[in-house]
């Protein structure tokens, strides 16, 4: 059976949930081989085995991570050239999409980004995308080369299916052009202990209605009670109340959690573009006419400074 | 310093978008066309870097005739000249084709024959949202890729950016020329002044077609795409569920609802 390559997303061997989602999807397409770049394979191995990686191509040379994007694309291109590869799945993150971009050009292959599903059919691999903020569903195929698909995080339910995760070391001779840009410093913001925004199954977001950086504690408290991530509208980010990484919408992250809570967010079309594929949407807003209420499953017309703390307390009480 | 900034014309994000049933491409007639918002930040960054280095900014756009409006906007912000690649065969081009066209335009006589120091793009277009083109362009040109920049610095020989990541940022550096893409955090795009708008009318814009670039129509447009839309369907819009007015127990009602959906 032909190989499906899955690029592992990890931080020093700490495997991101999107990787498990990709492995789960890949199993229905062919023989699963994970591709692990960087250090920390020993930490990652059990997870990769649990979710069905038969083989793991490991490339841990420092120069692969010293330069952004290009080395990973070269490594994948080599694996595609040397093996019998039916498709390459990469995480639909900012970096994953860029790796996909370069790999597609290198291998002369079509690329699809932001896939929410990937299935095998008579026409080959068919990717499903959800575009225009979830209003339109598109099915596409790749007509040239080895399909490269960037799969959106949180689109698949990861399911274990143990396999060997047998380590196969790969060495790649990087071209000069892959080494032109160099990472000189990696700045890691202090960890919040909350799940990543795009991976979280619950997201609680605050907007202009939160009215100040210090008030975001109200949003954070509900997120923590629910075990969710914190998001923000662009108005809140532009006001400097919350970091840009947390922005949800057209020019921020696209999230698709089980539950999305919008507090003090009006629901502008550009915000909806990033959250309207969430399974359940609830909102708290003072204004009964706020457009966010057009798409909620449940809405509370009220002041978020009353409703959110009460909800937080109630969640805690129910948990006992 | 010679800077080229690549801009795209997109449907205004404030309007509802739809695909055309004939060929599964975006129905561009149904919506107002504007400069891709992220590209305004790219133009602004190019202008600021040019101002600091006594440089020149060329704006490069691939797209239909009405794309001239977007080029004029960049010129009225202060860019010096424009290149417009326009050809009927380009309709339906994907990122693979777009990056091939931009690369060819940059190498052409009008694109300074490759004699540029920086190529700056927005990190994402608001219509397709793939973020593929900057990386593909770097790959095709064999140039360093410094993308998702929230800060750009150059001393004329090297360029250093802060690349936005999920965990914070990476500091990435390379020699010139280089391909840079920017995020909206980087600056505050200027509004064209009246003087700028008047001046833009006299600035040179050269028009190129595929023949000028030595590209074959079969390599671009829908015909040259390496992926194909098989079918699409419009989802029914979401509808409003239950709305309650907070009478002192809104928070509790909200949690009851979440419990009914097994979300707590
Ligand atoms: C090209 C482009 C891209 C964009 N990209 C994004 C994006 O990625 N993400 C994004 O979010 N926006 C984006 N925007 C901006 C978007 O258009 C809106 O301006 C923005 O989403 C508004 O944020 P908001 O809902 O927090 O603020 P507002 O629209 O000001 O809404 C605040 C809401 O809070 C309510 N409120 C106030 N006080 C309280 C209270 N005490 N309790 C309860 N409710 C209260 C108000 O009734 C109001 O509905 C983009 C815009 C453009 C043009």
Automatic annotation (TrEMBL), chain A:
The keyword Flavoprotein applies. Keywords: Electron transport, FAD, Flavoprotein, Transport. One of its GO terms (biological process) is fatty acid beta-oxidation using acyl-CoA dehydrogenase. GO terms for molecular function: electron transfer activity; flavin adenine dinucleotide binding. FAD binds at residues 208, 233-234, 247-251, 264-271, 285. It comes from the Bacteria. Binds 1 FAD per dimer. SUPFAM superfamilies: Adenine nucleotide alpha hydrolases-like, DHS-like NAD/FAD-binding domain. Its cofactor is FAD. The keyword Protease does not apply. Residues 4-183 form the Electron transfer flavoprotein alpha/beta-subunit N-terminal domain. Pfam families: ETF (PF01012), ETF_alpha (PF00766). Belongs to the ETF alpha-subunit/FixB family. Heterodimer of an alpha and a beta subunit. The electron transfer flavoprotein serves as a specific electron acceptor for other dehydrogenases. It transfers the electrons to the main respiratory chain via ETF-ubiquinone oxidoreductase (ETF dehydrogenase). This is Electron transfer flavoprotein subunit alpha. It comes from Wenjunlia tyrosinilytica.
Automatic annotation (TrEMBL), chain B:
Gene3D superfamilies: HUPs. Residues 23-217 form the Electron transfer flavoprotein alpha/beta-subunit N-terminal domain. Signal peptide: none annotated. The keyword Transport applies. GO terms for molecular function: electron transfer activity. CDD domains: ETF_beta. Heterodimer of an alpha and a beta subunit. Belongs to the ETF beta-subunit/FixA family. This is Electron transfer flavoprotein subunit beta. It comes from Wenjunlia tyrosinilytica.
